[in-house]
Amino acid sequence: MDVMKVTEAVGWVDPDRWRATPPVERLRLLRLVRANIDRHFDELMSADCHAKGIDLADPADAHQVGTSIQRVLVPMAANVSAAIDLYEGLVRDRPLQPLAVTPAGDGRFDVRVSPRGKDRLLNGDRTDVLRVVGEPRRVDPYAKSGGIVAVLGAGNVASSFEMIRALFVDSCVVVHKPHHLNEDADRVWEKVLQPLVDVHAASFCPAAEGPALTRDPRLSKIYFTGGTASAKAIMEATDTELVSECGGNNPCIVVPGDRPWTEREIRHQALQIATIVTISGGSICGRTQTLVTSRHWPQRRQLLDAITVALRDLTPGSSTSYPGVDKTFDAFRDAYPGGRLIQPVDGRPASQVMVIEDVGTEGFALGHEAFCQVMSEVALDVAPDAGTFLPAAAEFANENLLGTLAATILIDEDTKKTHAATVDRAVTDLRYGAVGVNTMPPMIWTNPYLIWGGNEEGRAFVSGRGNFGNLLGYENAEKSIVVSGFTSPGHLLMTSKRGWLDLSTRFARYAVQPTWPRLLALAFTATRGLFRRTGSPEA
């Protein structure tokens, strides 16, 4: 392909025509796209599995097929469905409203944005909040200036929901360039998004034409998901504003309980941690990499041993396939020869997990993103009570770990209630773009009402600038905050290969079309999955 292909792709889109397109027409287009996602569901899944070497016909790969479905279908489907809700409100002249707005101190406000509608039945114990600085102010899509956005697709996720944000939240037209690993899936997405191409709102260009696209002077912004070095190279090559998400070393702060955790609670948290550490072979930006514990917590050893059991015996192995991460894995092995290698019992290729306990408060593990199946633990020499430990752990995460993308706090309900002010202060103090309390970051990433991106105002560039999401269009959004129950049934726990595939399929189908029959099918599958968690991960 020559540069003219980029010139033609940028020339095809018409920002003025798109800004003049009324809400009723945009809503019609969204519904066509939604129907196309349903129509090409299996084709999208097959393209992603093929690119990642996952065998659709092999029962041993069933859970990896499920992860593929969650990776390629859910993000785009969730954003399209939420955009439909947004535009249905605009058509009725009844814009979507926040569920609540409350002061959060320090001139900040918490805007509760979800779950809403049928999703409240799935996530009844969850609260999704957008933290904004100053009085909450919204900007309607039609009040925005529009323009042309280049969306550069990620390598680990074969769908770019940033396109939906650019088109329907920011009123910009889009030129999409896929990562070369996901060109097969992108050809399917071209068919899915053809209604938007037909009205000159979207176009596609070849994967190899990234440099030419990013230097095109007609662009208003560039949306990029990928490595920090690549983002810096783009910024050096063009003056166009770059909105970027680049990962980092995400902490999970384990707060010692005022009372002992039960064996069930220990097992639940171990499974939640094992799932997020290994899903997609560890190659997701929002994965937990570093556990932050108190060295003096009496149950520290019990939790670490339970994580080992979960990784080895209870969670099916996921193959690491992202190019280059084998070298990163070897670098961690060289830096920590005492790190334990855990092989999941099902023996999947390239599924070993490296666990490095008590790495200290400085060194290689803190300043590097693994992006593969490496988990480290920092045992702080801090008293094992929430009032002392949590502020110290938040300060450590802010000052010592690479990046500002996402942080998690695990705290039991009794301790959280007693130390509510301490938890609130820690959530505020954590300089991360997403903070989950008893919730892992991918639950934030897929939520179009929230924002996803770094929190690096005045700091060195690591996790990126700007953010994606923010369906309701709030200005000065600082971070996303999601709080769920300590052992919520909505947590991601991969304990069964077939069960994970079934749950992922039902969840994706519901994300595409959130109807009552699909909700009931999802609820049935989730309930059935609860009874599979005591068996073999092969089941």
Keywords:
single chain, 539 residues, alpha/beta, eleven-stranded mixed beta sheet, 22 helices
Verbal overview:
- With 539 residues, the protein is of the alpha/beta class.
- Helices cover 42% and strands 17% of the residues.
- It has 22 helices and 18 strands.
- The strands form three sheets. The chain has an eleven-stranded mixed beta sheet, sandwiched between helices. Strands 6-5-4-7-8 form a five-stranded parallel beta sheet, sandwiched between helices. Strands 16-17 form a two-stranded antiparallel sheet.
- Strand 12, helix 16 and strand 13 form a beta-alpha-beta unit.
- Helix 21 packs antiparallel against helix 22.
- It is globular and about 65 Å long.
- The chain starts with a helix and ends in a 9-residue tail after the last helix.
Question: What is the gist of this entry?
Answer:
The protein has 539 residues and is α/β, with parallel strands linked by helices. The protein has 22 helices and 18 strands.
Question: What is the secondary structure topology, with strand pairs?
Answer:
Blueprint lengths: L2 H10 L2 H5 L3 H17 L1 H11 L10 H11 L1 H18 L8 E6 L2 E7 L4 H4 L4 E7 L14 E5 L9 H8 L3 E5 L5 H10 L1 H5 L3 E3 L5 H5 L6 E5 L2 H10 L3 E5 L4 E5 L8 H16 L9 E7 L5 H15 L10 H11 L4 E3 L10 E4 L7 H4 L6 E7 L5 H15 L5 E5 L2 H6 L1 H10 L4 E4 L4 H4 L5 E2 L15 E2 L7 E7 L13 H16 L3 H15 L9
Parallel strand pairs: 4-5, 4-7, 5-6, 7-8, 9-10, 9-14, 10-13, 12-13, 14-15, 15-18
Antiparallel strand pairs: 1-2, 2-3, 3-18, 11-12, 16-17
Helix pairs in contact: 3-6, 4-5, 4-9, 5-21, 6-8, 6-21, 13-14, 17-19, 21-22
